[in-house]
UniProtKB/TrEMBL annotation, chains A, B:
UniProt KW keywords: DNA-binding, Transcription, Transcription regulation
A Pfam entry, by short name: Peripla_BP_3
PANTHER family with a match to the protein in the record: LACI-RELATED TRANSCRIPTIONAL REPRESSOR, TRANSCRIPTION REGULATOR, MEMBER OF GALR FAMILY
PROSITE patterns: HTH_LACI_1, HTH_LACI_2
Gene3D superfamilies hit by this protein: 3.40.50.2300, lambda repressor-like DNA-binding domains
Ranges where the HTH lacI-type domain occurs: 2-56
SMART domains, sorted: HTH_LACI
Protein name from the UniProt record: Maltose operon transcriptional repressor MalR, LacI family
GO molecular-function term, one example from the UniProt record: transcription cis-regulatory region binding
Length: 318, 318
DNA sequence: TTGAAAGCGCTAACAC
DNA sequence: GTGTTAGCGCTTTCAA
């Protein structure tokens, strides 16, 4: 392993000079600068991050802590993970994956948490490490978070349906007592209240076939043209199937989903959906956690909400 | 930060004794053992992995290097990644994600590579770090690898179709000049040769709608009952749609896919498929890379092939 | 501007 | 069985 000393000898300087060339280039004279840089290249020196971490008490590692059950993991995570890894790398950090909330925290600088439940939050605080939550934190929670604005997303979806001429608008939500589920439903209700339209809210579990059954029983009430705003793409997939057996999409009936990960592109017709902007989300998460890590003082918790956009495809009128 | 010294003082022993309690428990007397263990608990000591890594020249970190384009990433990866992280953690290792084949290798002990192309292989060898490929290595490549047995998988699929009474069996493959694509096709051909059945091979890109179009044009040639063996679940999804418009599934026509990740459960009817056994695959990968890391000598490359099983669902006759 | 010394927390090698 | 010494590769004092 090539180390500072090897470079120092090659350049006939002390290792401190070499170290300074890397960490404090302004403190070293131009001649030595050049000399050292040549030597670094010549011997193929790469700084040892471990030694650096030991002396700096900083690891340049951020952990992605996934608290959700592995079996229920949505394909979302692959993209998010990769984007996070990429963004962190640009800042000189490395991404590590863990499923264990109790894993040691000495070898990391910060934690990005996903799939958490309310009861995890106090444990997370006790860890005494910078934390950024993926998913909006409860109002009284002193942790920072980044989330898509669920209510704004469904508001956009509902308004879009209205704008496209659908007046009989249903909402098929998640029968789940979680903030994001409630916020999405609230988005629908807010817009329908504003437009003074009839509110039709139904709930189901997040499975295509359950949504299919549910909507099949609703079809005869439709006052065409009808629109169906769905809490997730999975639900939308089932809705699409149910509706398609009887009505024309998008003429008689429009369907919009939420997530925009993978499923939306597999449906027939392709699904119009509210897309989670993972590129932006991961950027914000990384900026968030790094500012916490690199700040001298303890930052106030910062809760970022990102308003998602609609991706128009084939399941809604143009 | 609590360190060895703090524990040593608390227990009135030297730090070496504490170190030994952790790393070589057999070399320390029972009394001190107890004493030290109490002290460790009392002060809440957690070994500093960074210091450990520095002195041992071992980082206890394995990198997952994803060479595939982010945008084409299949949802597969989330599950694989999580399983890998989990298995590695059991062995005391940590999983890190990287997309950069040239990233420094001093802070890691080994690399698991996915989405590689032939031209990456020489770079990987030059890294001089233990490497395990996900996906079968070319025969002359001196790197270890783990892969699902693609040929055996499609052989099972084809034989299953034959066994269920389908005699007119098509294969819809990938128009991709990659080993796994060729192996899958070979699996179909091998079984059809053995059964002396008519060989009908078609190829398409990995998109549902392309497969749909392709098969729609084939339908009129079917000699029912017909079976369609598909190289991927995405293809199978399109095939399902095309066939469904005309024939009954699975009575007139059976369809089987390959991968068993996510898509298969979303189709209607649910897709019978050859499932990639990710739990096993990740176990083998981890065992593989760790044996390389922990072996004193350089191991011969080891190529593991895992025969996948069929998950019978609704798109084939019972 | 540059260098020498000390030490981050740990363990292997060697003494006792 | 236990302690002492040295050093992994680096950076932050502090002195020149």
């Amino acid at each position: 392993m090539v180390n500072l000393n090897d470079v120092a000898q090659k350049a006939h300087v002390s290792k401190m000079t070499v170290s300074r060339v890397i960490n404090h280039p302004d403190q070293v004279s131009p001649e030595l600068m050049r000399l050292v840089q040549q030597a670094i290249k010549a011997v193929g020196y790469v700084p040892n991050q471990v030694a650096r971490a030991l002396v700096n008490q900083r690891q340049y590692v951020v952990r992605f802590l996934l608290l959700e059950d592995v079996s229920t993991v949505e394909p979302n995570y692959a993209k998010l993970l990769i984007r996070l890894a990429n963004n962190l790398q640009k800042k000189g950090y490395t991404l590590e994956i863990s499923l264990d909330i109790m894993a040691e925290t000495q070898s990391i600088d910060g934690i990005i948490v996903s799939g958490w439940r309310t009861e995890d939050l106090s444990k997370l605080q006790a860890l005494d490490v910078p934390v950024t939550l993926y998913g909006a934190a409860p109002t009284k929670c002193p942790l920072s978070s980044v989330d898509v604005d669920n209510q704004a997303g469904i508001e956009k979806a509902t308004e879009y349906m209205w704008r496209q001429g659908y007046r009989d608008i249903y909402y098929i939500g998640l029968s789940l007592d979680l903030p994001f589920a409630r916020q999405r439903e609230a988005g629908y209700r807010a817009v329908m209240a504003k437009k003074d339209g009839r509110v039709s809210v139904y709930q189901t579990e997040n499975h295509a076939h359950l949504a299919d059954t549910l909507v099949t029983n609703l079809l005869h009430n439709f006052q065409l043209p009808t629109a169906i705003v769905c809490a997730t793409d999975r639900i939308a997939l089932g809705v699409l199937r149910a509706v398609q057996r009887v009505y024309h999409i998008p003429r008689d009936c429009g369907v919009i989903g939420f997530d925009g990960v993978f499923i939306d592109q597999l449906t027939q017709p392709q699904l119009t959906t509210v897309r989670q902007p993972f590129a932006l989300i991961s950027e914000k998460i990384v900026a968030q956690i790094i500012s916490q890590i690199e700040s001298e003082i303890i930052l106030e918790p910062n809760n970022i909400s990102i308003s998602p956009d609609i991706v128009v495809r084939e399941s809604t009128r143009l």
